[in-house]
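A protein record pairs a chain with a discrete description of its three-dimensional fold. The following entry can be read in just this way:
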Amino acid sequence: MITAVLCALPLLAGATEGQPAPVTPAAVAASAATELQILQKWSGDFPLAELMRLPAEQRTARVGYFSDPAAFAAVWEVFRPGETPPAIDFDRQLVIFCRNVTFYNRLSIGRITLDKGVAELLAMETMSARPLEDKAAMALAVVPRSGVTFIKGNGSLLPVPPAEGKNPPGGKERFIGEFRLNGDMVAVVAEGDREPRSIGSYTVRIYADLYNGSYVTGIIRPRNGFIRAVRVADSATPGQDEITVVMETAGSGRYATTDVLCFNGRELIVQNNED
């Protein structure tokens, strides 16, 4: 039986039964990531007629997560009908899932790695050309929540909010951080000075030399909530930087929004805004 990796995971891409995957630079880099302990895991089928039970922003995704008991219980009810949902401490744990989106192939989660706050799922699936009809194979795994800021899937990053009731990072102090870019430039990301943490603005300023005040460009953006995390990575375009700013609303019913900005060496461009 031929096997392949779901979720565009380069570490095992190209593997077949009885043969190891080819060694690639991406595989070597991935091996430096921390492996998250899988506390519990399950595989089974999920009825396509019940996709509305998945989180709204994850209904077309191959990879997603559950961060609260209500959302998980709603899915478990049709994933394992008649079985009592397992005990999960969502203050300290997450449930990460992957599923079929085009063809029906049985799934099994192998491991989950964490690199700079980004969790990445490695799963094996059988390969077939059987289109999805009434069900999709799904696999779920429970992992520690600590340190997980994003989950990688579908070529994008899903922001993971902190557990309900947890204080925002930094308490009452506004968010401000420095981040190294290509060419030894520095990005300074900061919530608006003297604004409430729950709403206002934030800025991204780029410096060729921060401590000599060598300013290059900048942008000011609206902010509904506090900045929870910032991640800098190489853009899909060589030589460019991608800056992801994750904000979380305050109060009950919290949700996260994400701004993605690209710096091309001269200017900042807003690529997209995801609610």
User: Anything to note?
Assistant: The longest strand covers residues 199-209. The domain at 176-274 is CATH 2.40.128.460 (Lipocalin). Helices lie at 25-30, 69-79.
